[in-house]
Specification:
The protein is mainly alpha-helical and 372 residues long. The protein is 65% helix and 6% strand. The protein contains 14 helices and four strands. Helix 8 runs antiparallel to helix 11. It is elongated.
Length: 372
């Protein structure tokens, strides 16, 4: 058996198309990782901040601090910022007034919320709506302190209190950091995953690529079968032979999958990654062989590739995690794999699903043998 597997592996490595398929994944992952290091964002914002206003500068510094999902362009004049939006170089312009500190003090005394920044957009979108929320969050600390200062000095009558004492008292009770903490079901903090939105869909794309490798393995097996390569093996035993022949493809692809995740920066830890990958490979192996039995011919099998790829992109959490069509998701191996990385329950469900696929395949094989 090991000799046969070795010969299958040797023959496989002589197929240039398979080698190209294997090389695509790490090259794509390395390219995405390099792209993620470049300056990028879901939208480009032109910032026009007057240098003489300290409050406007404070808000701008808060926007520019850390890694965000927006790309910011600095502009010295309002006309320049508007021109960038008109030409399409920027999706929006945020224009701060030259007397923002004074305006904020007036609003704080009156306890009113009024616009402090002029926003210029060519067309509204979800990303720009998110941007306005981020802008509001950046302005809020300065406005909050202005309201607090006005209340202490005007309402409480503590005009003589120093600015230093006022600021110290305010910061002693201010909430630091986020009010929410993202934690996965396995207890892994979300902050531990240090990758950008550009890298986020890569694991899902690789999972679908891995499934397509399984499809190509069954197509090669069906071609060999039609040429009589497995003529000496009884038809009743060819299901298990197909598992072995296709497993050679998936072992190579599994190593490449782990390497690609490592290169792309979406790797978690070796134990979790390897176990999920092994169970995922078994699931794909059972899934594609069941489809092979149902399709019967390579032509029908090939016709499934495009629509099934579209379904996996739509239902599996690659770009979006839809809350609907759960029954359809549970029929797709990539869905279990992507969920199992941070939830052990889905790892067990994927193993059970694999066992069910194997039992159904054995039943279909027996029915086809009786019919033949």
């Amino acid at each position: 058996m090991f000799v046969r597997l070795f010969l299958l592996q040797k023959r496989l490595l002589k197929k240039y198309s398979f080698l190209v398929m294997l090389c695509l994944a790490p090259l794509f992952a390395a390219g995405i990782n390099g792209l993620a290091k470049e300056q990028s964002g879901i939208a480009t914002i032109a910032l026009c901040v007057p240098e003489e206003d300290p409050v406007a500068g404070e808000v701008a510094d808060r926007l520019l601090a850390g890694e965000g999902v927006f790309c910011y362009l600095s502009c010295e004049e309002e006309a320049e910022a508007r021109a960038l939006v008109e030409s399409g170089e920027a999706d929006a312009a945020w224009i701060f007034s030259g007397d923002m500190e004074e305006e904020m003090q007036k609003l704080a005394e009156k306890r009113r919320v009024r616009p402090l920044v002029t926003v210029v957009e060519r067309q509204d979108s979800v990303s720009l709506t998110l941007g306005r929320e981020i802008l509001s969050g950046a302005i809020y600390p300065a406005f909050s302190y202005a309201v607090y200062e006005s209340y202490v000095r005007k309402d409480l009558g503590l005009e003589e209190i120093t600015e230093e004492r006022l600021r110290q008292t305010y910061e002693s009770v201010a909430v630091e950091g986020s009010l929410f903490q993202m934690v996965y079901p396995d207890g892994t903090p979300g902050e531990n995953e240090d990758f950008t939105y550009v890298q986020a869909p890569l694991r899902g794309i690789l999972a679908i690529w891995f499934t397509f490798v399984g499809f190509s393995a069954t197509l090669v097996f069906m071609q060999d079968e039609s040429r009589g390569v497995y003529g000496r093996i009884p038809v009743a035993k060819r299901l298990f032979v197909s598992y072995g022949a296709c497993a050679v493809f998936l072992v190579d692809a599994g190593v490449v999958l782990l390497l690609a995740c490592r290169l792309a920066g979406v790797f978690t830890d070796w134990k979790r990654e390897v176990i999920s990958c092994v169970v995922f490979a078994c699931c794909v192996l059972a899934f594609v062989n069941l489809l092979r039995l149902l399709c019967c011919t390579p032509q029908r099998m090939g016709m499934l590739l495009l629509p099934l790829g579209a379904v996996m992109l739509a239902l599996c959490p690659v770009f979006l995690n839809l809350q609907y069509f759960r029954a359809g998701k549970m029929l797709l191996p990539p869905w279990y794999y992507l969920q199992s990385i941070h939830n052990t329950r889905y790892l067990y469900e994927m193993a059970v699903y694999t066992a069910v696929l194997i039992l159904i395949s054995a039943l279909v094989q027996r029915l086809q043998n009786r019919a033949g």
